[in-house]
Amino acid sequence: MKIGIDASRANRDFKTGTEWYSYYLIKNLIEIDKENKYILYSDKSLSEYFLKDLNLEENKHVKIKVLNWPFKFFWTLGRLSLEMIFSAPDVLFVPAHAIPFFFPKKTITTIHDIAFKRDKRLYGGDVVSFDSDSTRGIIKFFIKILTNGRYRLESSDYLNWSTKFALKRAKKIITVSNFTKNEILNFYKIKSEKIAMVYNGYNNSLYQKIEDKDKIKEVLSSYGINQSFFLYAGRIEKKKNINILLEAFHSFKEKNKESKKKLVLIGNIGFGYDEFKYMISELDLFNDVIMLGWVEEKDMPYIFSGAEIFIFPSLHEGFGIPLLQAMACGVPVIASDIEVFKEIGVDSVLFFRRLDSNDLLSKIELLLNDSVKKEELIIKGLNRSKDFSWKKCAKETLEEIKKL
């Protein structure tokens, strides 16, 4: 059987959740399945480290196909569609939402979350960027005509359209949590049996509890971190609820004037970033908030291990891989009380009311003052993280592919 996979997200340079999902799922699928042939489609040549991980010399059953496309947008809908018309595999697997216009009968895709259905305000800007206003205007016009005025160029509209299209056309849908599966069933007309739930994993060979304090100190120092700190890792955007985190941290500094603790934010910037920069300035936190941007994965376990507390305040998530990464590194976790975090974290996470910065502050103070509670969370987190791995995710995904 020929299994084609959209590897474009896995090949991105600065990866976040869905990109890491694509990357590690592909890596593990080709390791555990030597019977089927794999074709990896990409919009550009694969990166050096991706090729190294794929180990093509040993994995002769894997073929790379670079599908060139003259535009910066709609590669999946355009170029991948053309490939499916003229040279379709037996099965097409798309690891994130959008499937091409044309596809084989056996097409399976993963839908990670549908937060855009809950709150469009958390999604801003166009789905793609354009070099000129005229190009933007033309594309916007054609989208309006083709969809009879129902959709625009905004991210939330594109996500809604591509999700509806995938739900209707794909033979099978994978979700990464029961929460996301239930959300889909709540918002869209689709039969439950068409959806399979397969939990995400994390890189358990990398994210581990690190005892080498000198190495932790060395890595932290290379990023300008020389004091005790609270950590957040994820995109710097509105749906991550960064404003509540900043408010809570500001209150902490106001109550503890002598404290030298820092707040470290790791992640690519997204919608709402300017608002957070303004907040940092207005709250006079410029010297206390360290924004590192995107950090290479090899350094992340050391930063996690050096953190006093990991805080994940999101308003919406489909899963939340950083929860697992933090727990696996032996860091106590405070997270917002959203349903999916309770599903993944269970009793190994300390939850706060998502819109209440005072409640977040109280949870921070609890862990700083109660060493027994802190150690209890660390132990539970280490145990809970063992329930997840990319190999397990790949095995269960392969089973769903075989059922098609």
UniProtKB/TrEMBL annotation:
A GO term, aspect molecular function: glycosyltransferase activity
A GO BP entry: lipopolysaccharide biosynthetic process
Glycosyltransferase subfamily 4-like N-terminal domain mapped to chain residues: 62-203
Residues of the Glycosyl transferase family domain: 226-379
InterPro entries according to UniProt: Glyco_trans_1, Glyco_trans_4-like_N
Pfam families: Glyco_transf_4, Glycos_transf_1
Organism: Candidatus Falkowbacteria bacterium HGW-Falkowbacteria-1
Protein name: Glycosyltransferase family 1 protein
